Amino acid sequence: MGLEVHPPAIYHLLKKYAAYPEIKKIYVTENGAAFPDVVADGRVHDEGRIKFYQDYMAQVLRAKNEGVPVSGYFVWSFMDNFEWAEGFRPRFGMVYNDYTTQKRIPKDSALWWRDFLA
User: Fold this and answer.
1) Would you say the C-alpha torsion 73, 107, 91, 98 has a positive or negative sign?
2) For range 97-108, the mean pLDDT
3) CB 71 within 8 A of CB 25
4) How many domains does the chain divide into?
5) Cα four-point dihedral sign 106, 109, 115, 117
């Protein structure tokens, strides 16, 4: 989509908000990136999305290890969907959605998250 990807930014934002004394817990509610996903042999190899999550999670963990009260992290998004400003073109999900057939295919990033969380 032409947007900058800069993982240290999430670290700096988490540190900034944690500096307010009234902040007791921080939840990252939407973090993700769109990539040009392609189905090949029934799979979606989205290495860019995996790298995105690895790099961003490293920064979240860095902040948490320094005392930032991160209590939750939610990816954007579980499944490809309609983006209000962009329509169906950008694909943010960990599950590929074939909009014609409604078939769902877990992308490699979904498998990475499964293993990471295990």
Assistant:
1) negative
2) 96
3) yes
4) 1
5) negative
Residue-wise pLDDT tens digits, 25-58: 999 999 999 999 999 999 999 999 999 999 999 9
In a domain, 21, yes or no: no
% helix / strand / coil in the chain, to the nearest 5? 35, 20, 45
Q: What is the pLDDT, as a whole number, of residue 116?
A: 94
DSSP state letters, 72-109: EEEES-SB---BTTTBTSS---SEEE-TTT--EEE-HH
Chain centre distance of CA 8 = 15
Q: Vertex 52, ends 88 and 35: CA angle to 5°? A: 25
* Inside any domain, residue 45: yes
pTM above 0.85, yes or no: yes
